[in-house]
User: Fold Guanylate cyclase from Algibacter mikhailovii.
Amino acid sequence: MKGIVFTEFLDLVEDKFGLEMLDNIINASDLESQGVYTSVGTYKFSEMLQLLQHLSANTGISIDDLLLVYAEHFFGVLEDSYPGLLKTYKDPIEMLSSIENHIHVEVRKIYPDAELPTFEVLEKTDNRLIMIYKSSRAMHHFGLGLMNKTFEHFNSTASIVLEKIKEDGTEVKFIINKN
Assistant:
């Protein structure tokens, strides 16, 4: 998992929960990196999972809800860092349907060894999108949060239904209906 995911997560924890909480979750975790990350480094997903588990245990907030909050933060990072990419799109459905064939292509230019989830578009109309998310990491709520922020970015709303295809969350169907 790319370091930017870790560095931004730690920034979020410090901003929302304080430096003491950040210290607590790092110290409670058995991190090969010792909690020291660079945005271009590559780290084990197990480290992110430990940080999330300890933050959840200390705050009483579910990991899924923490991932939603983190996705909102991360979308802001994307807006600030890659405004040209977002300006490529005029509509949230158009943007979300191009994750696999455009956005992930651009991400791989910056991070060639990034392990990204896949998104298979099953159905696309002007107001509806059905996609299958597949990943070895069950971070579908991070994806859901990014989708929510995508609609917000375009001053639009949608109902997004998440259906687990595999119980562990490594394969999920997103059914998106633009309002």
